[in-house]
Design a protein that fits this description.
globular, Glycerate kinase, domain 2, alpha/beta, 2 domains, 12 helices, Rossmann fold, five-stranded parallel sheet, 13 strands, about 35% helix
């Protein structure tokens, strides 16, 4: 006779087979793109849904789920060097662009926000004024200029996926040092940004004030992580899974400021499912952020 406990477990296994895991990380900055991170963290049978909050990997995440054709146009990098940059034409005619592919920090020989210009992103947008709708990933820029040198643009309907909630007033203080600004540069950058008369409010500080520039042009600023999850159907992908793995390069206090792993963790828990966080390393304040995950792992301590 099968013991009662064993019989219950057998019955549960038959009625509720082990479900897959949904793997939804964002980029591990400087190491892996969202897609590379998803492959690294997955096992056979897992469902991959890499995500971006508007920064690195924005285009590859959208293309992985929605398809589309990558095309190229000319635009300048932060120091005026013209190059071909990618954009994604979606099957429904919408177009997605990633600011980090145009004015990002990756591949630059130096970081100097005093002289770095976001004009190249404006040039790209000027060439896409006639598309039905734009999806703009706004994050990872090397610039703090509020689009002051952009050409005239008639922006089509545009959803702007912002990687931070920061107001433009705080953008210099919080992010300019990460882009190479020295302490003596901060008042110069602040005065320059505030002199542009750009709107204030949530997300306006994204990409060194470009959130404010796009808001002025009529763009709809949204929280990038949550909007990306909705666009790519996170809820539907999560439904047949028993657990979700998410993560990024570092878990620290800034993770709580609307970053994508927290958005994934909250949504997963709302479905009553297990969420695991996998991060490259830990930083100050990581314990508070770790409370949103059922399990946390680090590549290095």
């Amino acid at each position: 006779m099968i013991p009662k406990l064993t019989r219950i477990l057998v019955q549960k296994t038959i009625c509720n087979p082990i479900l897959n895991t949904l793997v939804s990380p964002t980029a591990f900055k400087g190491t892996m793109s969202p897609m590379e991170a998803a492959r690294f963290l997955s096992r056979e049978g897992d469902i991959l849904l890499p995500l971006s909050d508007g920064g690195d990997g924005f285009l590859e995440c959208i293309r992985h789920k929605l398809g589309g054709m990558v095309e190229h146009l000319e635009a300048a990098d932060p120091y005026g060097q013209t190059r071909l940059v990618p954009f994604l034409k979606l099957p429904n005619g919408d177009v997605a662009i990633e600011s980090a592919k145009v004015i990002g920090m990756a591949g630059l020989e130096r970081l100097d926000p005093i002289s770095a210009s976001s004009r190249g992103l404006g040039e790209l947008l000027a060439q896409l004024q006639n598309v039905p709708r734009l999806l703009i990933g706004l994050g990872g820029s090397a610039t703090v200029d509020g689009g002051m040198d952009w050409p005239p643009i008639a922006l089509p309907p545009a959803t702007v996926f912002c990687d931070v909630r920061t107001d433009i007033y705080d953008a210099v203080r919080l992010f300019a040092p990460q882009k190479g600004a020295l302490p003596e540069h901060l008042p110069i950058l602040q005065k320059r940004l505030m002199s542009l008369g750009l709107p204030l409010g949530p997300h306006t500080g994204a990409a060194g004030g470009l959130g404010a520039k796009l808001k002025q042009l009529g763009g709809d600023l949204v929280e990038g992580g949550s909007a990306m999850m909705e666009l790519l159907g996170f809820d539907e992908a999560c439904a047949p899974c028993s657990a979700v793995i998410t993560g990024e390069g570092m878990l620290d206090a800034s993770t709580l400021e609307g970053k994508l792993p927290i958005a994934v963790a909250k949504r997963t828990r709302s479905f009553g499912k297990t969420v695991m966080g996998h991060f490259g390393c830990k930083g100050e304040g990581w314990r508070e952020a770790a409370r949103y995950f059922d399990e946390v792992r680090f590549e290095r301590e």
